[in-house]
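Exercise: predict the structure of this protein bound to zinc ion.
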Amino acid sequence: MAARTDTPMSDLYYDTHAHFEGAPLETAAVLGRAFASGVTRLVAVGGSAALNAGALAAAQAYPERVRLALGFDRDQATAAAPEVYVETLRRLAAAHPLAAVGEAGLDFHYHPETAEAQAALFAAQLRLADEWRLPVIVHTREADEATLRVLDGTPWRGEGLRGVIHCYTGDKAFAAQLLGRQFAISFSGIVTFRNADMLRESAAYVPSDRLLIETDTPFLAPVPKRGQRNEPAFVAHVAECLAQVRGTTAEHIAEITRENAVRLFG
Ligand SMILES: [Zn+2]
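Solution:
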């Protein structure tokens, strides 16, 4: 079992989910620390006009290391019709190569009352990703059955993986449902939290070829950085936790999650 250290070795980690909303200088500092600590690649993920702009700026500043995902999340669902968002994505994607669509998906924890609008926006982006043959970065919280319903109700002609369920917080049974629908599952700093035993069971259960790691920067910093502003440099702590749960080394987790991420996002 790998020892827990203050400065974990983190060669070649691939953080599959980070948001950048701050000033360019701040983003540059965060990314500089990530690269210096061995996070050699990451996906800059959109979700709103501001998050899309931040992700785009990060990807343009470091095109060889930062992959770009653009999309509209559940909080945007009632501000405009899905077609309006799809048009925006078409315009953005025409100018900037995308590695994925997202994040998109459902969250009934905060806004159960907008469930229908959330599902419509999610489905529209699934159709767009299918058209573009790109993976989808999916958020799902307290919406297990609705998520499966939208996935099953939306055509998908791709081969390989359909995308990733990011920042996974569900149980083994839901994970099995998602794996059966050709999704990878990504674990964030939440898996390191003291009360996350159910989630660690899920982390032990996901097969090696479907496992990804992420920070969800700037949210949800992992133990022992909990309470700080999160950044990609901390992804090593997620890998260390998965290594303990799965009885392997952080280096091995780094290697398999990197390979999986390269397959999905390039
Ligand atoms: Zn996110």
